[in-house]
């Protein structure tokens, strides 16, 4: 723990990139250790992610939640867009929808307390853990690093087309719903640039994910997860 604390303190890049890399690495193991590992690895990933957020937060000055009407509006609009355009564009090869991929109800049963533990974990994890990890990596680090290797010298409010498009594309292609992801990435980056801080994008991201989680459970739209 001391070594991690030290590496976060000594390297602004590590503090912003390492939590994302660890989170993605754990994601790759979901489902690879048996069907149940889709769910218990997600639980472990969420707990590890939360710990990494708390560990890195003192050394990532921009990782501060901010709340405003623009954040709420963008968060809701992205959710509506994400769900609304879903039937109308093709998936890339290898990125097809798979409704059975993450469905604890199907695996454990409707009345299973374990199933609902994993569902609640996913909603809370995607609301409070994913936004700081991803927004710091994509909108704070990657966007500015594409502009300049000394990324901390680039103001959060600075706009440039190349990093704007590239960051949104990378963010979008990391999701099954790639087109929605690209538009989503643009919306969150616009919010960072407009507000000149990261916290509003974190809040918008949290609102989108929370609403999407409720939609998944309500409509049995498991392919979004």
Protein traits:
10 helices, 225 residues, single chain, mainly alpha, 0% strand, globular
Q: Would you give an account of this structure?
A:
With 225 residues, the protein is an all-alpha fold. The chain has one domain (63-224). 68% of the residues lie in helices and 0% in strands. The protein has ten helices and no strands. It is globular. The two termini are 32 Å apart. 34% of the residues are buried. Residues 96-100 have low confidence and may be disordered.
Overall pLDDT, averaged? 94
Tell me the number of strands: 0
Our measurement of the CA-to-CA distance between the termini, rounded to an integer number of angstroms, reads 32 Å
- Beta-strand percentage range: under 5%
List the domain count as a whole number: 1
| Weakly predicted, low-confidence segments | 96-100
Helix/strand structural class: mainly alpha
How do the SSEs run, as a string of H and E?
A: HHHHHHHHHH
**Cα-based radius of gyration, to the nearest Å:** 17 Å
Please, how many helices?
Answer: 10
Largest sheet: none
Quaternary status: single chain
Give the overall shape.
Answer: globular
